[in-house]
Structure formats: structure tokens, C-alpha cells
Design brief:
alpha+beta, 8-stranded antiparallel beta sheet, 23 strands
């Protein structure tokens, strides 16, 4: 009996200790998490969150654009997400004459809603555990000891066979996605429906939606209204369809109720979304590798590119608009890499990892099982062997692939083949195809002088980190023909290359020749980059040959050890729908420093700097603040809440995620993490990791009072217990983090 009681105590303790850590599969909630969530404060059963046989909150959470999360907030398909998630679409519709990035955009009628080319919204219809089925299929595979168990192509064919066997109806827009979890120890099939007619409805000006920009990014306290709104359109039968003026707003099966009641410190909360990637099952050697390769290159290469870009963006509004989304995307994970490396050192994460791996190795020895030790030794050897190739690959990727837009020149393979054949019809067809591709290319790089400046900076940065004898092949030409002057080489590219300017291309396409293609600087440069990426991939593929099998064994060992200790388990993030839960809590990042759990508009006013584009405040927002004209969205003390933090386990991809209160009502939208918590992708620390969220009341205030778009508020479902329900601000203990 004592042993049983001790086991129950340890299990309960383990669940409590780890309650805030985890990106949980919705299919496991009832079995693994419901008790712990209820003890923390959840007031609804988990089948109201996820119900495989009915409608639940999950059915109002969507994958926005493939890289963010959104939530449906009206019966007519209105979707709320982050401003930075909608940034590309806002930029798509912006011009110097209609600068929606600077001025914001609000559709005052359905007719004014703007179609967004290429933007999609995806629902998750079903989540099925198909582990047994996949394992049975793998037994009959032609290469049962190969790596098909992780191959997207192979798993896609298995998904099709499963759908056929189970009579899963493939309606318009429906897709199957079968993914491996826990290193290939489990498999889940996601049945999805994607809508492609998505229209922009509203976005605040960047001075609200990106207030604080790079300076405040990944920091707390925050004062940004990081939100934007879109609408899902479908055909008249409610089915996914390409854009058509006759399409209608989607009549959704579930939309969220919005709470105006606020939150207290310690209130339970949960978040649903599509976290992108994390690496909780890494060994310490892999963490060091990440710090010294991927994070190092993101830090230093992007820093150089962003400085060059920003200098030009500040000179010209057209340049600013064109590069705005690219710059924001680059800057986001530039600062992430810096903060992660700093945090990994400060929090001694390597020591934590070493302790975890030693615990598993000790368990293996106690069980007379040497498989964990073999897997561990193999992973360490692989990491050591592949590190030089990974370092070089990241340098090429950051400086020459991601860093150089002008290297997206069209391919010439079809024309080369046609010229060799001397077939006039083939040559004419290839010329026409290349002309179309070239027109698209030149439209995508409208500022060649900016490209030239960035190109020079990127080549010098690449040369700084890669020794001469290891550089890609184009540098032999640079050394021989240009005496090592990379600036002169870039100038030659833009002056003489086929794709250097429209005039050069026009002359070439009139009379194309193999000699011109084979000696063209830009073409040779692109081939050299491609060859460099291929060679480093080959080098790493050789080193990585046995990595997946070893990693699968290692992860299985970690899973078994956790379960033996009474701990729930969860897989690494992989852009699939997850739930994470915790509380609204302040935190202390350093001795003598205390951060409250919410901010108000007063803090934004204190940060205002009219001479710094990151901290400009719109005149109308200042007027509303000075008049205290916050309507029903204000706190009891008359202040306007802006942002708050929760200790949930979030990562990239959770941007735009709905933040729920204990009753399952929407209280905010997740948009960022704090700087001290950037190590969370590798090791979660609930004491220091926080997710930053826009208070839904600030979102509604901006829509209603600032934009005057009350018609949007009227189509939402709002809930409130009293005229001024929020307890925030009632006492000194609730001083905001201004």
C-alpha cells in the first residue's frame, strides 16, 4: 500500500511540476492532461476543446498562411491573426499612393475587402493516430531498414492508401498530411481543408501593429497592437474555391466567443496553435552545434544584411515598402538566434542536457540495455563529423541564398537544351518561356542598386567566415579575373550579365547563344551557389547516414523514462496543431528586476519618440488616450490594457494563436516570446519563459474607437459579466509593466 501511495504521489507531483511544459497533442488531452488542467483552473471538459466526434474550440483554430495561426471570430469567416503574420498580404496591397503598411487598412464593407493572392487558411478536420497502420506498411516496404519511415513522399503514399481503405472522402480543398512524431515512434494523419480565397479586412498602421519594431521584438514589456483581420470566402455551396467575385463569406461551423472580463494574476489559460519547430530531444553536443553553426550565422550574416537594407529603406518609401516583409522576417530570427545563444549560456542549458542524458544512460545500464549508449555514441560521432559541412552550408544559406534576392534569376536549362538541338520551334518556345520568367524576375527586383549594395556586403561577409580554400567555386574566378575584389565582381554582374538589367536581357534574347549563357557572371554565380549547397548536403548526408535510426532509439528511451517516472509525454513541434497551458504570471529576469503580467497604453506613451520610426504614435491614438476615450474596453481604473504574458510553452508558428481563459473564451492573441525564454526551443524553463499576447480588449478598442469599424465588432460574439469586469488594476499588486 505504501508503494502504491508513493507511486501516486510521485505521479501527481510529476504532473504538477511539468504542467506548464509541453506542446500537447489534442488527441492525448483527455488521457494525459485533463486532470492537471482542471487542477490548475480549467472550467470546461476537454471534449469542449477537442472532440473527434463533434464540434469543439479546435474547429475555430486555423493554420494561417502555412506559418502562423489564426482564430475564427465570427459566424461569417472573420479570422484574427497577428499583424506580422498578415504583413506580406498588407505589403502586397501597399504602394506609395496607398501605403497600408504606414496608414493601416479597414474595409468598411464586404465590397472593400481585398483578395490576397497566394494566401490560404487551413482547417484541421480530423486527427488520427495511424501508428499501427504505418508500421504494418513499413514491414512490407522494399527497404524495411531504410529511412522511408521519415520520408514525406513515402508517408504521403501511405496516407492515400489509408484514406482509400477507410473511405475518407476527398472533397474540394481537402488534403492529407501524414507525419512522423517522436523521431518516428508514432504517426498521426491530419485530414485538412484549405481555403484559398482569403481577403484582407483590417490592419492597424505599423505604428500600432509593429510598435517597438526591432528594438522591442522578443522583449517584455510590450505595447504593440500586433493584429490583423482577414475573411474566408467560399463558393455558394461553402466549398473551397479560387478567388471569384461571386464567392461569399464562409458560414463557419464554429467561431469563438470573446471575453471582455480580463484576467487576474495566476488565472489559468490555454493556447492552441501550430508551433513550427523545437528540439527538446537534442543531446548536449547537438545544442552546441546549433549555437556554433545555425545561430552563429543567423546572428552575424543577417546583422550585416539588415544594416545595409535599413540604410536604403530609410531613404526611399518605395524601397521601404518593397523590402518591409523581407526585412521583418530576417530580423525576427536574427534576434532570436542572439537571444537563444545568450540564454543557453546564462541558464546553463548544456549542463541540464548532460544531466538528462546521463539519467537515460544510467537507466539503460540498470536495465542491461546498451541501445541507449550506442545511440548516444553514434549521435555524438555524427555531430562531430558533420559540423564543418553544416557550418559552411549555413554560411552559404544565409549570405548567398537567403541574403541575395538577385540570385533568384530564371533557369536557362530549357534554352540551353533547345540551342543544342538547333530546333527552331524548340528555340522559339524556350525564348518565350524565358522572356516570361525574366519579366517576373525583373518585377521582383525593382531596385537593382539596392541588390548591388547588399550583394557586395554579403560576399564580404561570406569571405569573412569561410577560408579561401573552402569557398564555393565562383571565388576562383573572383580571385583570378578580379584579383580577389568581390565588389568588382558584383559590379560586373549588374553591368554585363544577361540578368543584370532589362536592356542586357533584351539584347540577349534577340540572339541567344550557348557561349553567352556559359560565360555569364550571374548564371555562373548561381550555379556555384547551387553546387556549394549540394556539396555540403552530400557531405552531411554521408555523416548523417545513421542519424535518424539512432535518434529514434534515443527519443524512444526518453519517452520510456518519462512514462516510468509518471510524466506525460509530448513530441517536438512540427507545425501541427497543439495545445499548451499555464497561467497569467509575472516574472523576474534578474536580481532586483520584476516584470508585471500586463501593460497599458500609458507605457506606449512613455516610449513615444517622434524621431524614431519604431516608436511613433498616431495622432488619433494620442487623442483617444488624452481624452481617456476607451469605451467599454477600459480597466476599472480607467486605463487601457494593451498586452499581457502567460507561461505557456510557445514557439514560432504560435504567432496569432488564440489565448483562452478557463471557460474557453478568447482573451488575447499570442504574438511573441520574451528574450529570457528564447532557450525554450531546446529546453523549457517555466520560471523565465513567457508568451506575449495582445489583450483582446486593445484589439477591439483599435477596431472600434481608432478605426471606426464598429460593424466588425457587431458581427462578433462578446461576453461580459459586468460593465467593468476586469480585476486588473485594482490595487498596488497589479501595477502594470509600463
Amino acid at each position: 500500500m505504501r508503494k502504491v501511495l508513493l507511486s501516486l504521489f510521485l505521479t501527481s507531483t510529476a504532473l504538477s511540476v511539468h504542467a506548464d511544459e509541453g506542446m500537447w497533442m489534442l488527441t492525448d488531452l483527455q488521457k494525459q492532461n485533463e486532470v492537471a488542467m482542471t487542477e490548475l483552473g480549467l472550467l470546461i471538459p476537454t471534449n469542449q476543446i477537442y472532440n473527434p466526434d463533434g464540434i469543439a474550440l479546435k474547429d475555430a483554430v486555423v493554420h494561417f498562411g502555412g506559418g502562423c495561426t489564426g482564430e475564427v471570430i465570427s459566424a461569417e469567416g472573420l479570422v484574427l491573426t497577428n499583424h506580422h503574420c498578415g504583413y506580406g498580404a498588407i505589403q502586397q496591397h501597399s504602394s506609395v499612393e496607398h501605403d497600408y503598411l504606414t496608414d493601416g487598412f479597414w474595409a468598411m464593407s464586404r465590397e472593400e475587402e481585398l483578395p490576397c493572392k497566394g494566401l490560404t487558411v487551413t482547417y484541421i478536420d480530423q486527427i488520427l493516430d495511424v501508428t499501427d497502420y504505418v508500421n504494418e506498411q513499413l514491414k512490407t516496404d522494399e527497404d524495411p531498414n531504410g529511412t522511408n519511415y521519415l520520408s514525406p513522399k513515402y508517408l504521403s503514399s501511405v496516407a492515400d492508401r489509408f484514406a482509400q481503405a477507410e473511405n475518407i472522402e476527398m472533397t474540394p480543398g481537402r488534403k492529407l498530411e501524414l507525419k512522423a512524431f517522436y523521431g518516428g515512434n508514432r504517426y498521426y494523419l491530419f485530414v485538412k481543408t484549405t481555403y484559398s480565397d482569403i481577403r484582407m479586412v483590417g490592419a492597424p498602421p505599423s505604428s500600432i501593429g509593429k510598435f517597438g519594431a526591432d528594438t522591442d521584438n522578443w522583449m517584455w514589456p510590450r505595447h504593440t497592437g500586433d493584429f490583423s483581420m482577414f475573411r474566408i470566402y467560399a463558393d455558394k455551396e461553402g466549398k473551397p474555391a479560387a478567388y471569384n467575385k461571386d464567392n461569399v463569406p464562409l458560414k463557419v461551423k464554429k467561431h469563438l466567443t470573446i471575453s471582455l472580463d480580463g484576467y487576474r494574476e495566476g488565472d489559468f489559460t490555454f493556447v492552441m496553435g501550430f508551433p513550427g519547430r523545437n528540439w527538446r530531444y537534442m543531446i548536449s553536443d547537438e545544442v552546441e552545434e546549433r549555437m556554433q553553426t545555425t545561430n552563429f550565422m543567423r546572428h552575424h550574416v543577417r546583422d550585416a544584411r539588415q544594416k545595409a537594407l535599413m540604410k536604403e529603406m530609410l531613404k526611399d518609401d518605395a524601397v521601404r515598402i518593397h523590402y518591409a516583409s523581407k526585412y521583418a522576417s530576417s530580423a525576427n530570427y536574427w534576434k532570436n538566434a542572439i537571444g537563444m545563444n545568450e540564454g543557453l549560456v546564462r541558464l546553463k542549458v548544456l549542463d541540464t542536457k548532460r544531466a538528462q542524458q546521463e539519467a537515460l544512460l544510467t537507466r539503460g545500464r540498470s536495465l542491461n540495455d546498451d541501445s541507449y549508449q550506442k545511440a548516444f555514441d553514434q549521435i555524438r560521432a555524427i555531430v562531430q563529423q558533420r559540423r564543418p559541412a553544416l557550418y559552411h552550408q549555413q554560411a552559404i544559406q544565409e549570405a548567398l541564398v537567403t541574403g541575395l534576392d538577385f540570385m533568384r534569376i530564371p533557369g536557362t536549362t530549357e534554352l540551353v537544351s533547345a540551342l543544342k538541338s538547333k530546333d527552331k520551334e524548340k528555340i522559339q518556345a524556350a525564348k518565350e518561356n524565358l522572356q516570361k520568367a525574366a519579366d517576373n524576375y525583373f518585377a521582383s527586383v525593382p531596385f537593382p542598386e539596392v541588390e548591388r549594395l547588399v550583394g557586395k556586403e554579403m560576399l564580404k561577409t561570406y569571405m569573412q567566415y569561410i577560408p579561401a580554400e573552402q569557398r564555393i567555386g565562383i571565388f576562383k574566378i573572383i580571385d583570378k579575373r578580379f584579383k580577389g575584389d568581390s565588389d568588382a565582381f558584383i559590379d560586373a554582374c549588374f553591368q554585363y550579365s544577361i540578368f543584370g538589367n532589362k536592356e542586357n536581357f533584351a539584347k540577349f534574347i534577340q540572339k541567344p547563344s550557348l557561349y553567352k549563357i556559359n560565360t555569364d557572371w550571374m548564371v555562373l554565380f548561381k550555379y556555384s551557389i547551387t553546387d556549394g549547397m549540394l556539396q555540403t548536403a552530400i557531405d552531411m548526408a554521408d555523416a548523417n547516414k545513421d542519424y535518424n535510426a539512432a535518434h529514434k532509439v534515443w527519443v524512444k528511451g526518453m519517452m520510456d523514462m518519462k512514462l516510468a517516472n509518471g510524466q506525460p509525454i509530448y513530441p517536438d513541434a512540427n507545425s501541427t496543431l497543439r495545445l499548451t497551458y499555464g497561467k497569467v504570471l509575472p516574472y523576474s529576469p534578474a536580481d532586483g528586476v520584476e516584470y508585471s503580467y500586463y501593460t497599458t497604453l500609458k507605457g506606449a506613451m512613455e516610449k513615444e519618440d517622434p524621431d524614431n520610426w519604431e516608436f511613433v504614435i498616431p495622432a488619433k491614438l494620442k487623442q483617444l488616450y488624452e481624452a481617456k476615450d476607451f469605451g467599454r474596453y477600459a480597466l476599472p481604473n480607467g486605463e487601457m490594457p494593451v498586452c499581457f504574458i502567460v507561461n505557456t510553452d510557445n514557439t514560432g508558428g504560435n504567432s496569432g494563436s488564440p489565448v483562452f481563459n478557463a471557460k474557453g473564451e478568447l482573451i488575447g492573441t499570442g504574438f511573441d516570446r520574451n528574450y529570457e525564454g528564447l532557450t525554450g526551443d531546446i529546453a523549457f524553463r517555466p520560471s523565465s519563459q513567457r508568451a506575449a499576447c495582445v489583450d483582446i480588449r486593445y484589439t477591439l478598442f483599435i477596431i472600434d474607437k481608432f478605426a471606426g469599424a464598429r460593424h466588425l465588432i457587431e458581427e462578433m460574439s462578446l461576453s461580459s459579466l459586468s460593465p467593468n469586469p476586469s480585476p486588473v488594476g485594482r490595487g498596488e499588486e497589479n501595477t502594470p509593466a509600463n
